[in-house]
Amino acid sequence: MNKKKTLIISAGFLLIAAVFSFLLWITIMSTPLPDGTVDKVIVKPLESERFTEQDYNKAVECVKKYFTKYKNCELKEIHYAGDNTITNKNMDTDSDYEHIELKSDFYVKPSTFFQPHNDAWPEGHTYSCWGWYLERQKGDTDWTIYDCGQG
User: Fold this and answer.
1) Rounded to whole angstroms, how far apart are CA atoms 11 and 15?
2) Order of all β-strands in the sheet with 126-137
3) Which of 119, 125, 143 shows the shortest CA–CA distance to 133?
4) For residues 43 and 29, which has the higher predicted lDDT (pLDDT)?
5) What share of the chain is helix, strand, coil (3-state, %, to 5)?
6) Cα–chain center distance at 92
7) In the predicted model, is pLDDT for residue 26 greater than 60?
8) Is the dihedral of CA 113, 114, 120, 124 positive or negative?
9) In the predicted model, what is the mean pLDDT of residues 129-151?
């Protein structure tokens, strides 16, 4: 009888441990990844004959606001791509829009034990020269991002 009682108690503990592990796994997988962070970003000084410091700062703020969608990532550095890039040089001819191209570096943070894996980005990887392509109507001060990506 003692052996049967020990077996039932052991099975009960195993069942409780399995249920607890399953509930912990469900909790971890339903926990959203944290928003992208921009609080430590280094903003390189503007060197341009086309844009003012105010134009540049507003474009940078637009990117920083958008970057929070990059879950579990940290924006490290951002800078103006230059007056002679294709986007900055050729997009404004005969257009009602102005375009600006920024480049950035960002880091994908490793997930902790209590976070789901970030399938969008390889963890521990730094992306360099990530392009941000912004536009605004001429005379308007609000930039919008129309594209971004490696390049």
Assistant:
1) 6
2) 42-43, 73-80, 97-108, 126-137, 144-150
3) 143
4) 43
5) 30, 30, 40
6) 28
7) no
8) negative
9) 89
The per-residue pLDDT for 30 is 54
pLDDT at position 7, please?
77
User: 26 vs 16, 30, 103, 116, CA distance in Å?
Assistant: 15, 6, 38, 10
Q: Evaluate whether 81 touches 51 at the Cβ level (below 8 Å).
A: no
Q: Is the CB of residue 94 less than 8 Å from the CB of residue 138?
A: no
| pLDDT at 4 (0 to 100) | 79
Calculate the average pLDDT of the chain: 83
CB contact set of 73 (below 8 Å; sequence gap of 6+): 36, 37, 67, 106, 107, 108, 109, 121
**104-133 burial by CB neighbour count: b if 16+ within 10 A, else e?**
bbbbbbebeeebeebeebeeeeebeebbbb
pTM score of the predicted model: 0.75
